[in-house]
Amino acid sequence: METPFRNQSLKIKRTVRLTQILAKYGFQDLRGKYSSSAASDELSSETSELASPYKRIRLAIEELGPTFVKFGQTLSSREDLLPKELIVELKKLQDRVPTQELDIRTYLEDELGIDVNDHFTEVRDTPIASASIAQVYEASLRNGDQVILKVKRPHIKETIDSDLLILKDIVHFLSNYFDSIRKINLEYILHAFKKTLMEEVSFINETKNIQQFAQNFRGSEHIKCMKVYEDYSNDNLLCISRISGVKINDVEKIKSFGLSVNTIVDRGLDAFLTQILYHGFFHADPHPGNILVNSQGQITFLDLGAVGTMLPSDKLLLEDFVSSFIAKDVDNIIYIIKKMAVHIEIENEKNLKREISALLEMANANSLASIDTKVFFSKFSNILNENNIIMPDHIYLLVRGIVLMEGIGRELLPDMNIVEKLKPYVDDMIKKRLSMEHIQSQLMRKLQESYHLLDQAPHNLRVIAQKLEQGDLSIVVQSQELKNIQKQYKKNQSTSRLLAIGCVFFIGGCLLSGGHHFLIFGLPIISWLAFFVGLAFMAYAKVRNLKID
C-alpha cells in the first residue's frame, strides 16, 4: 500500500543516489553548467576529458536510470525549447541497461502458479534484449507456438515512483523561480510524461493496446499484428507471439527479400496515417526499432506500451485544422487552435496571426515538396510556446510520430516527396468532408446543439434573474495584467510580513544586549539567537522576493 511516509523514504534514498551521480559528472553545483574550468577540477578521472557540460548531462541521465532516460528522450524531441547542443546529446540517450540475473523459470512459476514444463517445451535462460523496464526472453509453448516473454524488472515501479517525486520537486522549483522555465510549461510536459510512463510500465495496459491494435487492423493483408497469450500474462509478465522480420530501415535486408523499398515506405506511411486519421489510436513511438518488415512485406508495430488516442471530436478538429491550413485561412487556424488547446493565454493575437501567416508563407506551394517537417513543426511549436498555448497530449505524440515516420521514409528514399505521399489522404479527407453524408451529419449535430441551447434558455434566464434579485450575481473580469499586479501585491505583502518579523527579532536582540549571562563576544546568547532568527527571516524574505527572468 502506498503511503506518504513510504514515498518520502523512497525519494530520500533516490535523492542521495542522484546527488552522488551528479557529483561524479561534475555537477556538485550549478556552476558546473557554465564554467568548464571550475567543473574540471571536480570531475573524476573517468569524466575529466568531457569538456562539454551537455555530454556530461547525457551520461549522468543514463546512469540515473529509466525515468530520467525516458524524460530526456521526451525532451529530445522539443527542439523549440532546449539548446541545440543539448538536443544532440539527448538524442543519443540509450534505454539499454546491463542484464539482470533472473531465474526465468522460477519467475514464471511464481507469477503464474504453474509448472513450466507442463506449458512450455523451451524457455531460453538468456534474455535477447534488456531495457530499463523489462527484459525479453524467447520461449516455445506446448502447442508449438513461438513466443516472447517480456518480464518486468523487480522493484522498477518503486524506483520510477521515487524518481517522479524528485522530478516533480525539481520542475516545481524551477517553474517558481525562472520565468523562462515557466514559459515552456515544463510542469505540463512532466505531467504528460508521467501519464505515458505509467501506461508503459503497466503490462495490463499494453495487453489492451495490442488487442485494440489487432482489432483495428483485422483483415489487413499488409499489417501483421502481435497476439497476446492472456493465460501467461499479467501486470508483471507479458507473453506475446514471436514475429520474425528486420528493422524497417534495413534497406539491404528488405531488398534481399525481393521487396520494393518504395512499396515498404508506402505501406509504413499508410499504416501510421490510418492509425491517426481513421482509428484515432496510434503508436506513440514509431522509431525504426519498433517497426519490423517480414519476407512477405508485412509490417509489424512492436512495443505498444504507450499509444496516442483521439476522440471523434479530436479527429474532427484535426481535419478542420488541416483543411484551414490548406486554405491558408489564418483566422480559422487560430480559432481551431483555441478549441484544441488545454491552456491558452495569448497576449497579442495580432502578433500570433502574423507569425502563423509567416509560417504559411514558408510552406507555400513552391516549397512544400522540399520542406523539412521537423523544422516546420519546430517553428510551429515555438509559436505556441511564445503565445502560452498548451496543446493536448495526443497532438505532441502525433507530431513526434509524423516526424519519426518521415525520417524513416527519407532514410529509405532520400528523394521522397512527403507532400506527394500525403496528398491522397488529404484528398480523401476533403472529399469526405464535402460529401452529402458528412454535411447532413454536421447539420444534424448543429441543429441538436441549437435545440439543446434553446431548450435550456428559459431555465438559464430564470436562474440569472433569481441571482440578480437576490444580489448574488457577480461579473468576473479576467485580465492578465490585473493578475500580474495582484500576484506582485501578494508577494510584496508576504515579503513585508517576513521583514517585519525579522526586524522584531533583530531589535529584540538589541534590547536584550544589556544582559550579563552566558556572554559570547561580549553579547548574551539570547541576543545572538534573536539576531540569527531575525536574519533568517530577512534572508527568507529576500529569497521569496527573488525573481529571475
TrEMBL record:
Highest taxon of source: Bacteria
Pfam families: ABC1 (PF03109)
Residues covered by the ABC1 atypical kinase-like domain: 92-334
One example GO MF annotation: kinase activity
CDD domains named in the record: ABC1_ADCK3-like
Membrane-spanning ranges: 498-519, 525-543
Keyword flag Transmembrane: yes
Keyword Nucleus in record: no
Keyword tags: Kinase, Membrane, Transferase, Transmembrane, Transmembrane helix
Family: Belongs to the protein kinase superfamily. ADCK protein kinase family.
Protein name per its UniProtKB record: ABC1 kinase family protein
Source organism of the structure: Sphingobacterium populi
